[in-house]
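ingest -> validate -> predict -> emit
validate: passed (alphabet ok, no gaps, 274 aa)
predict: started
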Amino acid sequence: MNKEPADAATVVLLSHRSSGGCEVFLMKRVKSRTYREEIYVFPGGLLEEADLDPELEGCAGEFSGVKAQRLLQEPDISESLALGLFMAAIRETFEEAGVLLARASSGGVVDLVEPAAASRFAGYRREIYQRRLSLRELASTEKLVFAPDLLVPYSHWITPEIVPRRFNARIFLALLPAGQKPEHDNLELTDSCWLTPERAIAAYSARRMFMMPPTIRTIEELNESPDAEELLTTSRSRKIEVILPEAVRMAEGLKVRLPDGREYFPAPKSLEAN
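emit:
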């Protein structure tokens, strides 16, 4: 029951609103043996062996494992793991949402709206999902430089010990690059939407959208920021504390209690043994 949690990376994609404030990109994950309901999530997933490829550092410009370790505020993990978590965040965001945090040879963030590029990169996205293409190979083919500097580490969550599948998840923020449009993969994710934090909170409270505690708590915090740029700026100096919630059995069912005392009902079945 208390097995070591698996390393994972999650990315909160943000966009500006012309009327002020920001929106977050949420996707609906399919039902599974873990989740009875379709839950709304940010792009993200497990760290994979290919994310730790030492040659990836050469595909990340001046961004290094040392810098990744410092930004994550985790001096006890290896530089390789630190950089790998940033690369996992880039890969998962591309796989699940079709957004690629990378720069073209011109120096600008890669444009995926132009029809020929959109078609080509859609193919790469499928191949990466199928594990027939790696990030390193993609960088070599398209002469790309990945842009982990566009990711801002925001929080660090570890799944409660009672949960059968545990994750050691780092949550990053990223502003949606110009020339890109996120879209769910129609495989593990069946729908997607942009919502203001306020509307997402209202949908969660009304039980119209199921979310796990790290997702809804992050959205609640984002709701306190006036716009995306200020949020990114303040988050760069944010002190990251590890959040290890406690699963508490109540008369109305299991709740997740955060270290600050806040309590949330998780998505149905998510704390049950498999």
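The longest helix spans residues 79-97.
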